[in-house]
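The methods section describes the discrete structure representation at length, but only in general terms. Since the whole study asks how a given chain folds, the encoding of that fold should be made plain. An entry of this sort, consisting of the sequence and the corresponding backbone structure tokens, reads as follows:

. . .
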Amino acid sequence: QVQLVESGGGLVQAGGSLRLSCAASRTIFSINAMGWYRQAPGKQRELVATITSGGRTNYADSVKGRFTISRDNAKNTVYLQMNSLKPEDTAVYYCNAKLVLEVWGQGTLVTVSS
């Protein structure tokens, strides 16, 4: 199994940027799909972005052109670069790894003020 630890959340003004990191407890080289999801207050958890071991990415329409997901297998880390942040991006962001079972991190809070 693997443990995931997110970091990099915080308070930022609209239009600003943040970079989230997801550090895995072991190599992620063999993990085909990793991604970021978010959950805003009172809403269901939703997909933000995913990346395969081959580097193929997928984004929610709401973040396309603003967010970039990447992975560094040497550092066992997945990143989410978030630019041009909007108040509606406010949520707890969770890292996810799809193994035999899905593994989730504990989440990191991103708050975007208007």
